[in-house]
Every structure is written in structure tokens, then in C-alpha cells.
Amino acid sequence: MVTYLDKILAAHRAEAASGPSRPLGKLVDQARAQPPARGFRRALAESGGLGVISEIKRRSPSKGEINPGVEVGPWAAAYERGGASCLSVLTDQDFFGGSPHDLAEARAAVSLPALRKDFTVTAADVCDARIMGADAVLLIVAALDDVELVDFHQLAEEIGLDVLVETHDEMEVDRALAVGATLIGVNQRDLTTFEVDQARAVRVAASLPDHVVRVAESGVRGPADAATLAAAGYHAVLVGESLMISGDPAAAVAELRAAG
User: Fold this and answer.
1) Does the pTM of the predicted model rise above 0.85?
2) Mean pLDDT calculated for residue range 134-163
3) Is 187 among the residues known to form the active site?
4) What domains are there in the chain, each with its CATH number?
5) Catalytic residue chosen out of the listed positions 60, 85, 88, 187
6) What distances in angstroms separate CA 113 from CA 29, 161, 176, 217, one per listed residue?
7) Residues whose CB falls within 8 Å of the CB of residue 226, separated by 6 or more in sequence, listed in order
8) Catalytic residue, candidates 80, 105, 166, 172
């Protein structure tokens, strides 16, 4: 059976393969020439309680339209007023309706560090994240082989990006730790079915060592979920859909912060 993840990765890899030649050395130089990053991992480690990574997400393959007409800058500013520690911005166009412009607009409206939320499948993608203004890049363990995971993690650090390494179970946590990851997310959404398992992050928490900044992703519906994840040892939650449909995103972020 072809899964959501299969379709998305196939599309991204096909786009990378069919695009114009882009010498990696020049991309690395361009990435290194960007202004200093804002410190995504540090913002979470120093959040003074449960950090909230607030996401700009217009739509998704499983939910369809979520908030397609969102004004990105004002929405990001509301997140900051509510006490968000960081932003996450979808830049995938075909499946999530995002764009690099969304990332640039959101980051320009706030002082928060921002994650480029996308499906990183090439070294060029890592460089592009830094070039478009991101402070952190997402590496999904389930989407990469061991060589890619090592190479992309190392490259990201070399060009000044923090790396959120996304896992779904204990075996993937082991793979993340093997590349030296110090910022690890546990996604409660199964990327093959896009179904959410609300207990997944709590189960996997025991496999995350103390030196790792721990992020619970997906399925955070409100303060009660945030409190449960904070009690399980997570430093932060990454929240998209529930904030994007909120009538008051600043208040919704503040409630999550208070719950932790």
C-alpha cells in the first residue's frame, strides 16, 4: 500500500532529481553567509517551563484545509504575544499549502527562532532552509537512511542550523541518538496512515536521555494534553492544528504554557 509518507517523499525526491543542477559547494557558501541563527534549541531549553513551538499550517493531506487564508505575519505575532518559544512554518506547497514566503513573513514579524517544517531529502534542502531564513531544520528519521541522516545532521550543524530530529518509536530514537542528535521530537502522528496515537509520546519518553531536549509533536489538543506531556518529561510541544483553528491564538498558546 502506498502511504501518505511514500507519496510525499516520492514527490520531493522527484522534484530534486528533475530540477536544475545546483552545486552543493555554492549552496553551502551561501548558507554560511546568512546572518546568525536565533538559537532554536536554546530557546526551548531556556523556556522556563513547557515550551510551545507554534506552527503555521494552512492545510494537511489528512485534514484538508485548516486555515488556508491565514495572514502569516499577524498570526505569528499573536503566537509570540502568547508566549510561544519558537515557530514552526510549513514550506511544502503541494501537500500543506505552505511556502518559503510563509517562513520569511512569519520570522520577520517576530523575534522567535523558526523551524523550516518540510520533508528534507537532499543536502540542498538543508542549505535551502538556512538560505530562506530558518533557524532549524527538520530531519525525519523514517524518511532517511542512516547515511543521509548522518550527512544531513552534520551539514546542518556546519552551516549554523539547529536540527529537530523527528522519531516515532524507540528504534528511531536509537537512530537519532547515533548521529548525535540533542533535539529530538516524538511525533504522535503515524506518517503512514496520518492517524494520531495520543499515548505514543508518553510511551517513548523513557527512551530519551536527560541531555536531549525533548519535543512532543502532533495530537496536542489543548492544556490537558500539554500537562500530560510535560509530566512525561517533555521540554516542549509542537502544536499546529489546534492553534490554527483557534479564535484567539495568543490566548491558546498562553493556556498551553500555563498547563506545563
Assistant:
1) yes
2) 97
3) yes
4) 4-17+39-259 (3.20.20.70)
5) 187
6) 22, 11, 22, 17
7) 50, 52, 220, 237, 256, 259, 260
8) 166
